[in-house]
Amino acid sequence: MGSSKLHQNDANCVWVDGPIIVGAGPSGLATSACLTQQGVPSLILEKSDCLASLWQLRTYDRLRLHLPKQFCELPLLGFPHNFPKYPNKHQFISYLESYAGHFSIQPRFNQAVQSADYDHILGFWRVKTQDSEYISRWLITATGENAEPVIPDIPGINKFNGSVVHTSSYKSGSEFKNQRVLVIGCGNSGMEVSLDLCQYNAIPHMVVRNTVHVLPREMFGFSTFGIAMALIKWFPLWLVDKFLLLVANFILGNTDQVGLRRPKTGPIELKNVTGKTPVLDVGALSQIKSGEIKVMEGVKEITGNGAKFMDGQEKEIDSIILATGYKSNVPTWLKGCDFFNKDGMPKTPFPNGWKAEKGLYTVGFTRRGLLGTASDAVKIARDIARQWRPNDSCSNSHVILLKET
């Protein structure tokens, strides 16, 4: 694990020989595996009691990877050959568990990082959890873009008499049988939750406040994402976007006509600039066209038993599901660092956002999914391996200094 007690009398101070990695999701696991391959030990601190807690604890039952498995592999170990093209949630979790086993990765669970500070005098990172302080030359933030649910402030929501849940707590439409459900958000989660609700005879009303790109998950039998990645190597981005939209309109029809207005910026460019992912349709669009999923304009306010909308409509509603996404939580625990913006994302854009100063690294913040994570993890491991000197990590003088500060 690469850690040792700093001093016999100080059970709560732990020196870590290699880097400290915060987060045991795909980003933390990938980085730890790449470091192991380079001969560098590391220690992962994880606030929950399991690997990939977002996947294990906060995802709905019907979730599958939106991209084919070859775009979602972590470095050095691919998916089992017998996995389908789009692995489901449980298959992906089993892959992550076997990945951790393969590289002998053993995170320290139930270690919620409360603060991480750089000690300028000693040149070390001090990472405090509820019961220990961990000290290392390197700190890797691997908590990712999706650490905390985003709960929007909607007028009147506190007056609502029904249940209000974020998709992080939603498991299946079976809990909402025959209900009128307001789904706030029209990204991949909002679309899929609405589709799931239809299968349990619920009546989803999906709120679409902004423009959204909807693309077919596959074009001509090939992954849309795969086609885009192949074309982008040969053609300018604007041309690839134009092609994708042309084919999408041919396959799906004009989505504007069902209340899903497309942004003026193309889908790949929009993803690169803002991180907003296009929706890859897995069946929700046909339910919208048939009226099973009702598309609503923005919510003006929530009432005791329903909602008033911007276009003047009013509907009675039994439950509300917030498909409003997630955000980074880095600003809540990383102190004295201006590498991240107020939203907890690196200020330096991809592909150079993986390395900050003073031994600070970041993985899983590329807005490019698991492909971006894999790319970051490999770069970070190589960079730290170049600095790594086994056994020169913590001299006795450092121990004494740390004890006195």
TrEMBL record:
GO terms for biological process: auxin biosynthetic process. Keywords: Auxin biosynthesis, FAD, Flavoprotein, Monooxygenase, NADP, Oxidoreductase. Its cofactor is FAD. InterPro entries: Auxin_biosynth/cation_transpt, FAD/NAD-bd_sf, Flavin_mOase-like. Belongs to the FMO family. It comes from Gossypium schwendimanii (Cotton). This is Flavin-containing monooxygenase. GO terms for cellular component: endoplasmic reticulum membrane. Pfam families: FMO-like.
